[in-house]
Design goal:
- There is one protein chain.
- The protein is of the alpha/beta class.
- It folds into two domains: 314 residues, Rossmann fold; 97 residues, ANL, C-terminal domain (GMP Synthetase, Chain A, domain 3).
- 27% of the residues lie in helices and 28% in strands.
- A hairpin with a 2-residue loop joins strand 1 and strand 2.
- Helix 4 packs across helix 5.
Length: 526
């Protein structure tokens, strides 16, 4: 069945679960999810996925929850996780995905913030210590089992509308705490519709997804696959550390499209190029996001996967993504940077100067503002941060239209296409994850004996960048135990946000306007 048939069937759909389950009506016996079941590859059809969703809806529906009640879902990507969040969508329950690797204190902070009615983890999960006022349960291939019923409540809502929240993704925040990005059914479907017009996959594709479920890129992958009538192939997180096993998994599951941060390819390119090359006829597409793809690695990947269409996906959690741009094949030897192109259909990336005037000439750096129907609704319980990000259209404020001030900098090429020039704030990307350096710095300064801290990301050739923290000790302190400080950070921060190097300095250098001079700090360790 062609992609156009799916598109036609999805035209009038307004809710997430309906959009992703169209295949249950059009191609019910086709694989929806292919995953490891024990040591074997298992297949779940669209019909079976829909039945799992219906069973979950029955269990959750008996709990008396009201539309809008939040459900925390702790899991990696799997058929069971997809069925469970689609069941939440069916009941109007915004789901909040978190990783099994989330530190306990960070999870409790999220729970305290969103006040969920229910917390669900997989049948293999080992999390305990969930507050008693929150209902608990487990889910897996056999459905959902409730262990502790949610606090009784009174239902007020009757109808799910497209403007209702569909999910909430937590990212690093500038205030030092995680920030919840609320996305509506209308917003995520507007994004899916714009993305699918690029024709990145076809109904016969098998889309390997490597992103954690708590990362919005995983929802992109799921929407790309199920929204096209294709198949989702969740890659076990543990395999990403072992290139030979990762590539064997791709071969065994017959994946044709592989999505993830550029770093997922680095070990395979370095240690298993022959095995990677054996997939050259199988893998037809690669979509990457989260960080720039080192061009020498990208050129080598193109050599080993000669049939693969490689797409640069650019954007923020607040809109899932803004653009999808094909990398030239081959990437010219004299090219220094990949373009992020133009916004996907239904959106526009505006480039404005400091006075909010449009920039049309090539080579002039400006700020990206995103005009789109696929924007997030708000930051959870943070109206001030929301107002700073969702602003009146600077070009025509009279319309009352709201656009997203992304914080990204870019310049135009000769054809009007955009090239990313970095951030206007202290946000960085580490292994594809968004990190606010302010959150790292705040945690470090809470450690006994540390008076001030500044974090920087130190680029490394042919390796992931290193997160380095410079600390100023409190008066009377002579040293800091790096291992203890690292363990202190790991109690609250995910592993990718924990400092990898710690340097004690007498004082932090500042710029003429009084801000910490991160460039000077970088030069001191480069």
């Amino acid at each position: 069945m062609s992609r156009h048939v799916f598109t036609h069937a999805q035209n009038s759909i307004e809710r997430l679960h309906e959009f992703l389950l169209v295949g249950a009506r059009l191609t019910p016996d086709k694989p929806a999810v292919v995953e490891f079941a024990g040591n074997e590859v298992g297949t779940i059809s669209y019909r079976q996925l829909e039945r799992r969703v219906e069973e979950c809806v029955t269990t959750l529906g008996d709990l008396g929850l009201d539309m809008g009640d939040r459900v925390v879902l702790e899991s990696d990507t799997s058929a069971a996780a997809i069925a469970t969040f689609l069941a939440c969508s069916s009941l109007g329950l915004p789901f909040v995905p978190v990783s099994p690797e989330t530190p306990a204190q960070r999870l409790l902070s999220i729970i305290h913030s969103v006040r969920p009615a229910l917390y669900l983890q997989t049948t293999e999960g080992r999390r305990d210590g969930i507050p008693e006022h929150v209902g608990t349960g487990r889910f897996g291939p056999s459905g959902v089992t409730i262990e502790r019923a949610p606090t009784p409540r009174r239902a007020h809502r009757r109808e799910i509308v497209s403007a209702d929240p569909a999910y909430m993704v937590f990212t690093s925040g500038t205030t030092g705490t995680a920030k919840g990005v609320v996305m509506s059914h209308r917003g995520i479907l507007a994004f899916y519709r714009g993305m699918l017009q690029h024709g990145i996959v076809a109904p016969e594709s098998r889309v390997a997804t490597t992103a954690p479920l708590q990362f919005d890129f995983s929802l992109l992958d799921i929407g790309l696959a199920l929204g096209s009538g294709a198949t989702v192939v969740p890659v076990p997180r543990s395999l990403l550390r072992w290139p030979r096993r990762f590539l064997r998994f791709l071969a065994d599951t017959e994946a044709t499209q592989v999505n993830g941060a550029p770093s997922i390819w680095r070990a395979a390119l370095r240690h298993e190029p022959h095995q990677l090359g054996e997939l050259g006829d199988q893998i037809r597409g690669v979509l990457f996001s989260g960080e720039p793809f080192p061009l020498h690695e990208l050129r080598r990947l193109q050599e080993l996967l000669p049939a693969a269409r490689i797409v640069n996906c650019f954007g923020s959690t607040e809109s899932v993504a803004s653009s999808f741009t094909d990398a030239p094949r081959p990437v010219p030897e004299d090219q220094k940077q990949l373009s992020i192109g133009f916004a996907h259909p239904g959106a526009e990336m505006m480039l404005l100067d400091d006075d909010h005037r449009p920039i049309d000439e090539p080579g002039v750096t400006g700020h990206i503002y995103l005009r789109s129907s696929a924007l997030f609704t708000a930051y959870w319980n943070d109206p001030e941060a929301t107002a700073r990000a969702l602003v009146p259209d600077p070009v025509t404020p009279e319309t009352g239209q709201v656009v997203f001030r992304t914080g990204d900098l870019a310049h135009r090429g000769e054809g009007g296409e955009l090239y990313f020039d970095g951030r206007a704030d202290s946000q960085v990307k580490i292994r594809g994850n968004r990190v606010e350096l302010a959150e790292v710095e705040r945690r470090v300064t809470e450690f006994t004996g540390v008076d001030a801290a500044s974090a920087v990301l130190l680029p490394k050739k042919d390796a992931d960048p290193v997160l380095v923290v410079f600390v100023v000790l409190a008066p009377g302190e002579r040293s800091v135990d790096e291992m203890e400080l690292g363990a202190f950070c790991m109690e609250y921060l995910p592993d990718y946000m924990a400092p990898q190097e710690i340097h004690v300095v007498a004082e932090l250098p500042v710029t003429p306007n009084g801000k910490v001079d991160r460039n000077a700090l970088l030069k001191s360790v480069s």
